Amino acid sequence: MKKTRFLIPALSLAIVVAVIGLASTASNENEPAETTTENVSQNEAIADSPFDKMMAVLTHKRCVNCHPSGDRPRQGEDSHLHNFGVQRGADNHGLPALRCESCHQHENNNYSGVPGAPEWSLAPSKMAWEGKSRVEIARSILDPEINGGRSLEETVKHLTEHELVLWAWEPGIDASGTPREKPPVPVDEYIEAVKAWAAAGAPIPEQ
Ligand code: HEC
Ligand code: HEC
Q1: CA 155, CA 144: separation in Å to the nearest integer?
Q2: CA pair distance 184, 60, nearest whole angstrom
Q3: What are the φ/ψ torsions at residue 144 (nearest 5 degrees)?
Q4: How far apart (Å, rounded) are the C-alpha atoms in residues 80 and 130?
Q5: What is the pLDDT along the chain (207 residues), one digit of tens a residue?
Q6: Ligand closest in space to the Cα of 114
Q7: How far, in Å, are 22, 27, 200 from residue 40 at the CA level?
Q8: In this structure, are residues 162 and 120 in contact, taking their beta carbons and an 8 Å threshold?
Q9: Burial of 80 (0-12, 13-18, 19+ CB in 10 A)
Q10: Is the dihedral of CA 121, 125, 130, 132 positive or negative?
Q11: Between the chain's N and C termini, which has fewer beta carbons within 10 Å?
């Protein structure tokens, strides 16, 4: 039973890849020789700056669902409010009767669909990212008043090593049996981008 769940998406992915492959070979043959590969790679170079890559991850729902602006976590690809009326509580671990850790364990439970990682709890309200632009988020992670007094080095360490961060690339399967979406940048590229951005002096663009 469990296998078919993976086999079907894997098969349909293979078909999609094959079809795209065919389509792109066909269109390449029809296009003039001087296709705009150069322009394309230039554009990609801009969109792929370390800051762009890093912020494509930080603004993804796997992070933002747990860095919400209100007092309730969000869930799923549509970031709906957490079921069961779960609240932040005084210590960000929920109200006494409904603690995060009573459902969330140290690892994903792919049978019940409850995601898990060590220290599972809500990011403090001052670290809310929901509704913020990537520039605002970047400023806030560099601000010791907001980021828990972290130096740039400590922020890089959190961004590249913390288990709640890395969970986003092993997000498990949701309660309906669907694998959760991963951030749009592979984890090793993301880690490289964060380090390159910091090494360049953590520049924040205008927008
Ligand atoms: C399960 C909830 C959860 C998830 C998912 C989560 N975080 Fe957090 N995050 C927290 C908590 C709790 C803190 C506060 C911990 C602390 O300050 O030590 C935090 C703090 C942070 C901080 C440090 C504070 C700051 O403003 O600089 C950064 C950076 C951060 N998270 C990045 C991320 C990124 C990137 C992702 C997604 C790839 C992510 N988090 C996903 C719960 C989460
Ligand atoms: C009664 C059990 C229960 C409690 C208590 C609970 N959760 Fe959850 N949580 C779940 C379940 C079940 C899911 C998965 C729902 C799904 O994906 O269909 C979930 C999903 C989440 C997600 C969504 C991850 C994503 O990106 O889709 C976050 C974030 C989250 N919980 C945070 C918390 C936090 C923080 C607390 C404590 C303040 C908490 N939860 C308390 C059961 C619980």
Answers
A1: 10
A2: 8
A3: -60, -25
A4: 12
A5: 444 454 444 444 444 444 444 444 333 334 444 434 444 444 454 468 999 999 999 999 999 999 999 999 999 999 999 999 999 999 999 999 999 999 999 999 999 999 999 999 999 999 999 999 999 999 999 999 999 999 999 999 999 999 999 999 999 999 999 999 999 999 999 999 999 999 999 999 988
A6: 2
A7: 20, 16, 25
A8: no
A9: exposed
A10: negative
A11: N
Query: Cα–Cα distances in Å, from 57 out to 81, 134, 144, 145?
Result: 21, 10, 21, 23
Q: Which atom of ligand 2 is nearest to the CA of 99?
A: 5
Tell whether ligand 2 has an atom less than 6 A from the beta carbon of residue 79.
Answer: no
User: Cα of 165 to ligand 1 centre, how many Å?
Assistant: 6
**Token code pair at residue 145:** 């008043």
Output the six-digit token pair for 102.
């009573």
Is residue 74 within 8 Å of residue 86, measured between CB atoms? Answer: no
d(CA 101, CA 116): 9
